[in-house]
Each structure stands twice: as structure tokens, then as C-alpha cells.
Amino acid sequence: GENVGLHLPTLSVQEGDNSIINCAYSNSASDYFIWYKQESGKGPQFIIDIRSNMDKRQGQRVTVLLNKTVKHLSLQIAATQPGDSAVYFCAENVKGQKLVFGQGTRLTINP
Amino acid sequence: NAGVTQTPKFQVLKTGQSMTLQCAQDMNHNSMYWYRQDPGMGLRLIYYSASEGTTDKGEVPNGYNVSRLNKREFSLRLESAAPSQTSVYFCASGTNMNTEAFFGQGTRLTVV
Questions:
Q1: A105 to chain B: which residues are within 8 Å by CB?
Q2: For A28-58, what is each residue's pLDDT tens digit?
Q3: What value, to the nearest 5°, has the Cα angle with vertex B38 and ends B32 and B40?
Q4: Which of A73, A90, B72, B80 is least surrounded, with the fewest CB atoms within 10 Å of its CB?
Q5: How many CB atoms lie within 10 A of CB B109?
Q6: Tens of pLDDT, residues A73-103
Q7: Which among B89, B74, B91, B83 is positioned nearest to B10, based on CA atoms?
Q8: C-alpha R_g of chain B
């Protein structure tokens, strides 16, 4: 696979546990946020998004929380599975301008 | 639907050579993007096209040029490749600039 994310922050969890991946964003004017999942050798894949007029949004096994006061975004994955192992990126968008990505976090699921 | 298609998937260039990375999307999206991804770093935006007929610089545009050929296609050109341009390049597209972007599978470029 690719040598993507050699020095990324890493989170290891046991299969079946819940995972929480955190992201601090930089621009207080950002009004749209996205979480992406990237598996080895593949392009980023959209997971879930949230707009700044919300503080929580739920999908299938995933929840995104937004705290605009401290410019913090989190992705919660319930009952993690081996297929959840990947690098996760948050991205922020300012009023229809370019999408800016964070550094990413590597999630490893232990059997 | 194929989504976002990039060609080639792999490429090795010698320093100073030129090449064009091709990207096409079949989702009728207005916005298209080129990112590069280096080890230990997130995706960095090279150029983007908010809509057909417009292009703008991103975070790291030096050494690159782009062409929004039509609504479907957005190409990235390296005029004189340098080893620092060794990276994985991703093309993406979105309905507009304030919606999620869908990514291609990437082009792994090595410049020797």
C-alpha cells in the first residue's frame, strides 16, 4: 500500500469498542465540515458531514459532534469493526471556498 | 457511473520531464479539485475549479498548471517535474464548493 500517513497520530481500539477521533479546526468562519475515511491505496471516502447550524449529526454507526466555541470536531464510531481500520480526515469549508483538510488520524482495530 | 476517474494510476518521470494528469467525472458536478498527498501529511489543495470556465490556486500551486477542459474534465500539468513533486495526486469533484467532494483513486507519481 501507500506510505500515506507514516507519522500520523494513531488510535488503537479493541474490536467492538467505540472509537472517538478528534479534530481541531482552524477557521472560526468555517461553516461546513466533513469526515473522510481513507483506506490504504484508495482515495478518501465521504463518511458524514455537518453544517455550522448544527452541533450533532448521526449516521449509520457514526456520529459527528461540532463544538464551535472551541473549534472542535469529533467522529464517534460505534462498535468498531476490522473494516473501520483506516486513516480518518476532517475537512473544513469556509463559505463556499476551498475545502481544507486536517492532518488525519490512523485508526487501528485490534482483534 | 464511474464517479471520478484518474489516469494514469502510476507514473515515473525523470527530472525536467513534463506530463499531464487526467481527471474526468460523470456526476455532472460543477466543482473540481486537484490535491496532493505526501506521507505524514493531509491532502493539500493544488488548484480548484469552482465551475466550468474558472480555475483558482490552492495552497500549493507552484510548479503546476490546470485546465478545466469542459464540465467533465480537469487536467493537471507538470511542465518540468522535480523530485519534490513525488506524491500521490487525487482529483475530486463536488456539486458545488459547499458540498462534499468525491475522490478518484489517485495517481502515484515518482520523479527521479
A1: none
A2: 889 999 999 999 989 999 999 999 999 999 9
A3: 125
A4: B80
A5: 21
A6: 999 999 999 999 999 999 998 776 778 888 8
A7: B89
A8: 13
The distance of Cα B82 from the centroid of its chain, to the nearest Å, equals 17
* Grid-cell match 480555475, residue found: B55
Residue A12 near residue B96, CB atoms below 8 Å: no
Q: For the residues of chain B, what is the DSSP string, one character each?
A: ---EEEE-SEEEE-TT--EEEEEEESS--SEEEEEEE-TTS-EEEEEEESSTT--EE-S--TTEEEEE-SSSBEEEEESS--GGG-EEEEEEEESSTTS--EE---EEEEE-
Which residue in A32, A3, A28, A18 sits closest to A97, CA to CA? Answer: A32
B28: left (phi > 0), else alpha (psi -120 to 50), else beta? left
Non-local (6+) Cβ contacts of A69 within 8 A are none
Cell of residue A84, nine digits: 473501520
| Residues B77 and B89: beta-carbon distance below 8 Å | no
Task: Select from A10, A27, A44 the least CA-distant residue to A100.
Answer: A27
Q: How many CB pairs under 8 A join A and B?
A: 69
